[in-house]
Known about the structure:
The complex is a heterodimer.
Chain A: H1 4-10, H2 15-23, H3 27-32, E1 36-41, H4 43-47, H5 53-59, H6 61-69, E2 72-74, H7 79-82, E3 87-89, E4 95-99, E5 105-106, E6 109-118, E7 121-126
Parallel strand pairs in A: 1-7
Antiparallel strand pairs in A: 1-2, 3-4, 4-5, 5-6, 6-7
Chain B: H1 20-27, H2 37-68, H3 82-86, H4 109-117, H5 126-131, H6 138-150, H7 161-164, H8 168-181, H9 186-194, H10 196-231, H11 238-252, E1 259-263, E2 266-271, H12 279-294, H13 338-345, H14 350-357, H15 366-393, H16 402-417
Antiparallel strand pairs in B: 1-2
Amino acid sequence: MPTIVDIAVQTEGFSTLVAAVQAAGLVEVLQSGGPFTVFAPTDDAFAKLPPGTVQTLVQNPPQLGRILKYHVVSGKYTQADLKGLKSLTSVEGSVIPLDLSDAFEVKNATVVMPDVEADNGVIHVIDNVILMG
Amino acid sequence: MTTTLQTPPTLIPPSRHPHADIIHRLEAGGSMLPDTPENLMQIIGIYKAYAVPMDFYWRDLLYIAEQVFLDPFPFFKYFISQEYLDRPNHYAGDTADLRIWRGRASAHPELLEFMEKGELKKKLPKLLHHLWHDRVNMEFAEECMRAMLWHRHMYAPVNQFDAYLDSDEYKQNADRAIRAYFKKNPVMLGLYKLFPDMFLEKVRELSYYSNLGLFWEVMAPVFFEMSDIYDEGGFKGVPDAMNFLVNGIFAIAGRPIYHHAYIDGECYEIIPKSKGFTWLYEAALPYVEAVFYRTSPFRGTKSYNAQANQVPADQKDFHYGILYADVFPVGTAGIPPTLLMQDMLHFLPPYLVEYYHQHCRGEDDMLVQLGITFQRSMYNVTSAVIQALRTALLYPLDDPNPKHRMANRKFFEAQMDRFLRPEARLRDIQSPDYR
Lengths: 133, 435
């Protein structure tokens, strides 16, 4: 089975995320380590950010890395595993609130495609970039 | 992004909050400050007047953090080097990382002219201008820095800067810089051996000099650009001006916050960029909390007498920032913002000077009038911060899901709760007669 990075690279609609992961130097981590649960924003999600936001982050890899690490949780959690959970702690260290009562919501993002299985974890595709705080 | 909605939201019932009118305005994409041409003129004019001294503040703050460093007798810390006046702003000019102001990257021409000639309009040696107190009031910038230093644990744990100052890694980095700085000074090295924490705490303070300097390096070009856009007729109302700030906050959110010291030409990374500290979480949000909301009680308005219980015991209850300040005693003893008002007085655009001449006591109470304008403008900046947080952490204003709308409502109400205390000036700024 392919890894989390392989899936992101091969699937259409994740070019910004892949470029960001590369710029932040996180390919190695997501390729070999694990298992991880990754909340992956689509290109459309990145496009919703105001102009300049991504540019500033790409210029500064450690800061970009921190935002990306907020989208990653250590351990493999499928949608079924998350039922009833109120929050998860991200690799960045901050808490990600969850709400699975109606839809599958992660902070202020909605999961548009849950449970994409990978070799070293699981991907949930989200429609918003999530931010700490 | 924030857009002004034509119809009020009908998905959820009206708010019952005492500031419901303002909450509904925020939900419609507005600002806490009413949208009138007079308000727009005032706030943009004062942004311009604020940006010029701020262009000095950020340069000198970084000069002190990076070059003056631990000088035990920093008599000349406000005599910034030419190198720091020429230092290109990262967000202005042709070499910018992300160009916000279309103007130049080195110090603003009005600032340079003021530094040369001052209020006296005479070219005199720097030292004489300084001794005659004909200068930029850098003490105000240091007061803001100290507010950030003393109100610790703000926005923790998302703000990681503050916690890092207590880490072993930070202590080791600081230790290396302290030893290098005093390597030819056995007296200071001996003192360091006896009282290491005294020096360490001083380095922490210097780290906050750097933090605030890097914060204002962004705000100065933002305010200059807003002034230029207004002059070109580019802002249609107060919400436009607020949205420009919201976009600016997002664009720069990821800029690194760090502290480098230069000792004998060598760079000591006391807080390296690789820590991942960001402008938004480690500088902007703590700054707003420390300076707009909290600061410290003015010596001229509150008694520090422990038995009088006038000053709260808990720092989170401090309410002495610009959003609560009584501006009328500006110019009298014991009112720190006077320093800033005096600085801004030198750089007012002509339309604002004319406006003040027509009101109250004309030229005589201009400091008070511009202080109140400044308060209005900071309510608009705070509105931008609130809208930016809502954009980042919650939902769009036109979200069709009632649950999401309610989450936004709860957030706005929680923010307005902070203006329920009687000192808050939120109600005053709703009226044009407050001046």
